[in-house]
Amino acid sequence: MDIYANVEIWLALGILLIALISYVWEKVRMEITSASLLLCVLVIAGLELPKWPTFGETMKIFSSEAPLTIVAMFMVSAALTRHRLIETLSKYLEGFTPYGYKPFMFLLLLSIAIFSAFVNNTPVVIILLPVAISLSKPLGVSSSKMLIPISYASIFGGCCTLLGTSTNILASGFMANSAYYPDMEAMGMFELAKIGLPLLFFGLIFLVFFGYKLLPNREALSSIISSIGRKEFLAEALVSGGSPLIGQVVKNSTLDSTSGIRLLDLIRSGKSESLESKNLKFRLGDRLILTCKPQSMLDAREEAGIDFFNSLSTGAEGISAEEAVMVEGMVRPSSSVTGKSLQDANFRNKYNLTIVAVHRRGKNLHLRLNSLKLRPGDTLLFLGTEKDIQHLRESEEVVLLDHPPIPLKKQVFKAFGVLAIIGGIIFSATTSLLPLSVASLSGVAILIITRLINFREALRAVEWNIILLIYAMLSIGVAMEKSGGSELLAEAVIEISLTTFNGDWKLVFTIAVMYLITALLTELLSNNATIAIMAPVSLAVAYQIGLDESAARAFILTTCIASSASFVTPIGYQTNTFVYGVGGYRFKDFVKFGIWPMLLYTIGTTFFVSWYWGFFPSFK
Asked: For 7, which DSSP code?
């Protein structure tokens, strides 16, 4: 292939490389990068280059069944989450804690894997985080011994079925629309099971027997706050006339010199002001939100000239200085505060709560908190009264990690209704009664008609930034295939394999190389972006080697496993990112522990694929 005479290849590879750098760099929001990528492909299509897809060919990605199926499964998972079947299961699992860490963890991780094989694993992990944290105490272990295994078990389960993860559904779409193998059928519901199930078994054995020894002994942020700090009081005060604070810059005020007093928020004209501002000065009548010891309240009244709210001075009902509670919460993927700044999220006015700290990927983000844009998985430390904390809990904007939510008995019947619909989707797709896309969308329609979930909740459950990412990567995938970029990458993979070993074992080594390249890519990118790149490449590799349609399936199934099996970094898979912030982990914890399941899945996938498809020389 004369790549120097093919400008389309360089355009496709260049756009793809810039997009990948942007996704990894994370300075630009994912959806902006995805929209820009899609727009670039469409604009170049208007130039009518000979080896670039036309506008019509590019627009065909919107008729793809895979993204629609993924949207539907987001909604189905939300219905299951709403009716709290997983929480109900967790209450039964709690009864096994007296048997010790290993028996309990095996049952917990097996349950997670089974759920994750059929529904979106992100809500499964999110729901079980507070369960694991609360049950770590009766088990006599730190929560860090449990959270990474929970994430990994959800990945194990997702590698077993077509519905296990969105990457499998995307790969199935590539299989059914392959230019190299036009007659290739879509992935079967349990086609991955012959590889994924034995890997699941060995993976669970590793997590149960080695997780306790190899994982660090750390606690979540909220667990290491001292008991003294928890007994501070949350108080509201007014800057009174004649106060020495009036006119002082807040950041440099004498209030900080009052021992035991900490200013959390300043409310002026009903609006929370940014304490980081260099120009913010105290004014008469400013409402202050403080934490303080009882004696400090007396000192502040005398020295700082502030009046605390109470029934005598303000006519307010009761005393507003109440015992403060600190609770750690994690931003849900579908939360309405995602993408908003703390100031716009307005937890103070909505829930009467103060944000004490924000953690993201193990770091405390203490600068410019009011302008900080919240992301799914961010861990917030809330300070407020029990009543206000309960108000936030009911909103489901965040997952509070203090204790598991209590399942509602009246919802158990509805939960089994959701399970029946999920079972119908699986049955229809497995028996080819209906295509998966039709079965899943029909399931969503039944859920809405029977009011097991309302339309607004269903739309809110979809992670639209991921759907936009999928469409963007599908567009560049079409460009890569039409320009010859996928073929070029396939030639590079074959060259690496043959250089390493050219003989009877070349197919085994090619499978191993395909797995390693895909696994490395998924540690840096999302699993959906990875499969969109590597699925066409895997089919191109099989085609160039001269394999038939059956053997080519082995290559794309290998990339399915590898694109989901992200263990070495906390950023390669969304569930890893969630437990990273909650569990008090460091980046190196994932590297040191995750390298073992990565080796297990690399060797295991290569072995089982080569064995089932007869790639070992002795099987030919």
From this structure: H
User: Over the stretch 400-446, which tens digit does the pLDDT of each residue have?
Assistant: 877 665 554 555 677 788 889 999 999 998 888 888 889 999 999 99
DSSP code for 186 = P
CA gap 281, 278 in Å, rounded: 8
Tell me if 546 sits within 8 A of 507, measured CB to CB.
no
* 353 three-state secondary structure: coil
What confidence category does residue 293 fall into, taking pLDDT thresholds of 50, 70 and 90? Answer: low
Q: Cα separations (Å) of 78 from 150, 376, 393, 404, 410?
A: 19, 16, 17, 18, 18
Q: Among all chains, which residue has been given the structure tokens 């890569």?
A: 480
174 against 342, higher pLDDT: 174
* Average pLDDT over every residue of 569-597: 85
**Is the predicted pLDDT of residue 116 greater than 60, yes or no?**
yes
The contacts of residue 54 (CB under 8 Å, 6+ apart) are 45, 48
Please report the beta strands in 435-593, taking only residues with DSSP state E, as ranges in sequence order. Answer: none
* Alpha-carbon span 155 to 501, nearest angstrom: 31
Give 101-144 as a DSSP string.
HHHHHHHHHHHHHHHHTTS-HHHHHHHHHHHHHHHHHHHTS-GG
Residue 477, judged by CB atoms within 10 A of its CB (0-12, 13-18, 19+), counts as buried
- What are the b/e assignments for 589-599, b being 16+ CB within 10 Å? bbeebbebbbe
- DSSP-assigned states of every residue in 246-306: TT-BGGG-GGGGSTTEEEEEEEETTEEEPTT-TT-B--TT-EEEEEE-HHHHHHHHHHT-E
Q: Per-residue pLDDT tens for 121-130? A: 888 888 888 8
Mean pLDDT of 16-42: 86
Q: Domains of the chain by range and CATH?
A: 66-220+410-464 (no CATH), 233-322 (3.30.70.1450), 324-400 (3.30.70.1450)
Rounded to two decimals, what is the model's pTM? Answer: 0.79
**CA separation for the pair 293, 73 (Å, rounded):** 50
Greater pLDDT, 487 or 603: 603
Residues sharing a CB contact under 8 Å with residue 477, sequence separation 6 or more, in sequence order: 174, 486, 532, 533, 535, 536
Question: What's the farthest any 2 CA atoms get from each other in the chain?
Answer: 93
Sole residue written with tokens 């694929």:
609
CA distance 416 to 398: 25
Q: Among 518, 519, 582, 564, which residue's Cα sits nearest to residue 136?
A: 582
| Short-list 500, 483, 610, CA closest to 555 | 610
Query: Is the Cα dihedral 452, 456, 457, 462 positive or negative?
Result: positive
Report DSSP letters for 468-509, one per residue.
HHHHHHHHHHHHHHHHTHHHHHHHHHHHHHHHH--STTHHHH
Residue type, 423: G
Q: For the CA atoms of 278, 279, 285, 291, what is the dihedral angle to 10 degrees?
A: 0
- pLDDT value at 198 more than 90: yes
